[in-house]
Amino acid sequence: MIVAFSVTPLGVGEDVGEYVADAVRVVRESGLPNRTDAMFTSVEGEWDEVMDVVRRAVAAVEARAPRVSLVLKADIRPGVTDGLTSKVETVERHLAE
């Protein structure tokens, strides 16, 4: 499964990059395939391990912010691995045609 999620600290002002970095650090240290862009962090793995990473990423932000917003989207597709790379490669292949 691939989960794209965004953790946003609330009540800490406009500059939230430092807080978001705490969440992304948890994801990167998990060892699961992941990718971060301007809006979301995507992580790939089995249900329990991915949801544990999301939970810990939220907890990292929650430890320093009075309120946290979580947006999550999941692609649950058993038997598919390396979706983070293969999905993008498929689109790029079509764009190159």
TrEMBL record:
Domain Thiamine-binding protein intervals: 3-92
Species the sequence originates in: Streptomyces hyderabadensis
Any Pfam family: Thiamine_BP
Gene3D superfamilies: 3.30.70.930
Name assigned to this protein: MTH1187 family thiamine-binding protein
Protein family membership: Belongs to the UPF0045 family.
Source organism superkingdom: Bacteria
